[in-house]
Structure formats: C-alpha cells, structure tokens
Amino acid sequence: QKKLHKHKRFSSLDLKGVADYIASGKAKRIILFVGAGISCNAGIPDFRSPETGLYHNLQRLDLPCPEAVFELEFFKTTPKPFYELAKQFFPGKFEPTLTHWFIRLLFDKGLLLRCFTQNIDTLERLAGIPESKIAEAHGSFATSRCLECGKQMETARVQECMQRDEVPACDHCGGLVKPDIVFFGEGLPAAFFERATDVCRADLAIVVGTSLQVQPFASLPRRVQCPRVLLNHERVGDMGTRADDVVVLGDCDASLRELAALLGWTAALAAVAAGD
Length: 276
Ligand code: APR
Ligand code: ZN
Description:
Elements: H1 15-23, E1 30-34, H2 54-57, H3 72-77, H4 80-89, H5 98-108, E2 112-117, H6 123-126, E3 134-136, E4 139-146, E5 152-153, H7 155-163, E6 177-181, H8 190-195, E7 204-208, H9 220-223, E8 228-232, E9 246-249, H10 252-263, H11 266-273
Parallel strand pairs: 1-2, 1-7, 2-3, 7-8, 8-9
Antiparallel strand pairs: 4-5, 4-6
Helix pairs in contact: 1-10, 5-11
Zinc ion (ZN) binds at residues 146, 148-149, 151, 170, 172-173, 175.
Domain Deacetylase sirtuin-type: 8-266
Protein name: Conserved oligomeric Golgi complex subunit 4
Family: Belongs to the COG4 family. Belongs to the sirtuin family. Class I subfamily.
C-alpha cells in the first residue's frame, strides 16, 4: 500500500499554496526538473521557442535538420556546425540566472533532493550547487574525449581550438574529439539512471523551463507521487492534469522571485546571487 501523501497537499493551487507547503516544513526533499528555459535570461537561447530558439536559428547552417547538430553520425562526418554552435554557449561566458540561484538557495536550506537538468551549460555548477546534487541528463562540456581512442582532452585545450575555429583533434591518435554531452542516439550518463530513483523520495517536484519533449528525461515528472509545480512560458507534458498540480505560466525568474518573496527569502536570494 503506497504511503498516500493525502496530508501533503497545497492549501491553494498557486504560488501562495506552494509557499505555504514549503514554509510548513512538508517539503524537505524538493526535486527539480529543468531545461534550457532557465538559461534564456542568461543569454543562452533555448532550442524550441519560436523565433529565438536555436533550432530556428540553425537554418543558416544548412543542416539536413536542426537536430542534426546533435547527431553523432552527422558530427563524425561534419563536426564544424556543432563546434560553431558550441562556441555560442561554451561555459565561462554566462552567469547563473535567478532561477539557478533559487535552486542553490534550496540547497543551502537543506531542501534540495536533486536538480535534474537537461542543460549542458554547467550554470548549475557555477551557481555553487554541488555535483552530487545535480544530475546532468544530457552530459555537459565539463569533459571531452577522443571518439577513436577515448583519451580525455582538457576543457581548456578544447576551448583554445574552438577560439581558433579549429575542430579539436586528439593529441594521442589524431582522432575527432567530442565534449561529453549526450547526442541523439547516445545513451544517457549512468548517473542519470542511478539518480532517477530519487523520484520516489521527493515530497515536492518543480518543473522549470523545459518543453518536456525529449525522453527519457521527459518521463521523470510523470513518475513522482508528490505534488508538482510547473513554472514555464507554456503548458508542457502532463503538467496540470493532476488535481494537485500547480501551473504558473510566465517567466521562471519572475515566478521564483515571487515565490521567494512569499517565503520571506528575498534577502537570502539576493545574498546568494551576490556571492555572499
Ligand atoms: N521562463 C519560463 N519558460 C521559458 C523561458 C523563461 N524565461 N524561456 C523559455 N521557456 C520555456 C519555453 O517555452 C519551452 O517550453 O522553456 C522551454 C524550453 O524548451 P526547449 O527549448 O525544448 O528546451 P529543453 O526542454 O531543455 O530541450 C530538451 O532537447 O535538443 C535537445 O538535448 C537538447 O536538452 C535539450 C533537450
Ligand atoms: Zn585519440
């Protein structure tokens, strides 16, 4: 008989209800499911937003289709488009957003069970959330390796090649080097599956800035048994279909700024964002 969370409900299906739920101490293991939408305010375009999304802007690279830029077979024959794109959002050029800082504040308050991210920009790490609390479902630029012999290449070396608009080649065998981000057709990191069991332990799930179009990540929010919140420009996945789902459509930074205010965390959020 699954432990029913009947007592674990929001007092009202809005941010005030979510704030009351957290303030009441019912949320001790908060799980986050985030995507490219949380980095848009940092200046990194997302993928599928009309007009501004990367897949819209990739038309100019005359790819067979936009997603080809993240397809392994295409990359092996034509690596340049990927590296041109990667230059746009290689780590080191962008700062965390208010959303990243809010997740860091949850960690500081001992309330963060795990942050599942689809993003490869490593802004969660830059916001000081420990790696043990992050599941980078689609890998990240943090490490790169040769596709022929598997030898790792330091990020700094990869970055140098990219600055010179060169495709990084392995210094051991001359093979093509690829950052450890997950391309279509590749398996997700083991850590993703090991940590996916967290969904059974969460007592609050917050989905932010993702279209929930890519599996297996998109199936995670369906598997939680606890109350769920969506903070996104648009309704996505099955969010909003459960009686106790809270859906707040709009800018995620604005929604989390309001949630922080409702929780009395405005000063704490400003302090963590200022690196205090
Ligand atoms: N506030 C709230 N929502 C936003 C904001 C914002 N400031 N900016 C964008 N969004 C929403 C968009 O409306 C969209 O629903 O974030 C979502 C972004 O969706 P995608 O662009 O599809 O990004 P994501 O869901 O992370 O893509 C998943 O697809 O291409 C692969 O591997 C890539 O990890 C990526 C995966
Ligand atoms: Zn090699």
